[in-house]
Design goal:
398 residues, alpha/beta, D-Amino Acid Oxidase, Chain A, domain 2, six-stranded mixed sheet
Length: 398
């Protein structure tokens, strides 16, 4: 269903801009409820943050506003065979956040107490003995940590692709290498222009990741969002030594070993990003710092070779929680972006929320903290100038 030229319009009930996890999940949940969906992706699905992240399926350590969504999403992760017909590579390994000092452990205890007061009991304080039973290869100086037994991990590209294939089986049409350029409301429909023609629908979903701010600005709804790069590296295969995904309370770390023996090392490692050229810029000095953290905790990994390192482009919000919201300025527009390096686990519930906003006008999840208009006007005005410049540069490159 490809437009034959710029004069042609291809229609649907909903247009989703962005082929990351939240875009593909939105397409799936909308199509599952009978909507005719078109998804537009500038490059290929899961090219950026959704395909190059560490793959942590993590409810541990979430911002308090995200906890209800994260727990609801985890339930969907555990039900993926029922929803998609496959597990999308999800492994329920548990996640462990270690404390290396008494002060760090006290901080974790205060967090767990706060969660308990809010009615959440999934994060459990464990002592040093339990930490070393869960991860016996760790150095012995750990004093405790937080354990979440039903968290886990997945392979990002394959998880996104599983949602894409499920959406396509339900009739959703995916158009890759079809970047949205302009969006406008004409009558009762949205019109999205691309180099491959014009697409139109009554509803529009802005899930364009680091480029979502450009489209929000086009509809008069600027957001205080900044793009940035995220880095990861993976080792050669080594004998199995750890099951849980590991994080640290006092320093950046996301660490897991796959079934094939390779070890993935991340933890919100930021780098530069060129949003016009659409790529992240690997910073090997920062990667070396992360490698030092790993060998501090697992001395037997000294000398293990790094097979490759890579970077993707992500969108960061000032408060580091996403926008998941109906537009406050334009009709029939839903925003879902700005996941600030921790949107992967939220992918399944994010798409469900989008489908509810489109088809029901409200969500069953508590999404008020993620409103698109929660930031001050001055910050948003600064952002719109930056977004407009990026959009101009992008169109010039094309």
């Amino acid at each position: 269903m490809k437009p034959e030229g710029r004069g042609q319009e291809t229609g649907a009930d909903v247009i989703v801009m962005g082929g990351g996890f939240h875009g593909t999940s939105s397409a799936f949940h909308l199509a599952r409820r009978g909507a005719k969906v078109i998804l537009l992706e500038a490059e290929y699905c899961a090219r950026h943050a959704s395909g190059v992240n560490a793959g942590g399926v993590r409810t541990l350590g979430r911002h308090y506003a995200e906890v209800p969504l994260a727990r609801a999403s985890l339930d969907l992760w555990h039900r993926l065979p029922e929803l998609l017909g496959e597990d999308a590579t999800f492994v329920c390994s548990g996640q462990l956040q270690i404390a290396e000092t008494p002060a760090e452990l006290e901080k974790l205890k205060r967090r767990v107490a706060d969660l308990t007061a809010l009615g959440f009991t999934h994060e459990v304080i464990v002592d040093a003995k339990a930490v070393h039973e869960l991860a016996p290869a760790l150095t012995p100086h750990q004093v405790g940590g937080i354990w979440v037994k039903d968290d886990g991990h997945a392979v990002p590209y394959r998880a996104v692709t599983a949602f894409r294939h499920a959406a396509q089986r339900l009739g959703a049409a995916f158009h890759e290498t079809t970047p949205a350029q302009t969006v406008e409301r004409v009558g009762d429909r949205w019109r999205v222009t691309t180099p491959r023609g014009v697409f139109s629908a009554p509803w529009l979903v802005n899930a364009a990741g680091a480029w979502a701010g450009d489209f929000a600005a086009q509809v008069g709804e600027p957001v205080a969002m900044k793009p940035g790069g995220l880095m990861l590296m993976i080792t050669q295969r080594i004998p199995h030594f750890i099951d849980p995904v590991l994080g640290a309370a006092g320093r950046p770390l996301s660490f897991k070993q796959f079934a094939n023996g390779t070890v993935l090392i991340g933890g919100g490692l930021r780098c530069g990003a060129d949003v016009v050229a659409r790529h992240g810029e690997v910073d090997f000095m920062k990667l070396s710092t992360s490698a030092q953290t790993v060998t501090d905790l697992f001395p037997h990994l000294k000398g293990v070779g790094i097979n490759r390192a890579w970077a993707g482009v992500e969108a960061f919000m000032p408060d580091e929680i996403p926008v998941i919201s109906l537009s406050k300025k334009a009709p029939n527009l839903v925003h879902a972006f700005g996941f600030s390096a921790h949107g992967f686990e939220l992918g399944p519930i994010g798409g469900q929320i989008v489908s509810e906003l489109v088809l029901d006008g409200r969500s069953t999840q508590p999404i008020a903290p993620f409103a698109v208009d929660r930031f001050g006007l001055a910050t948003a005005q600064e952002s719109v100038l930056l977004n407009a410049k990026r959009a101009k540069d992008s169109h010039t490159v094309q």
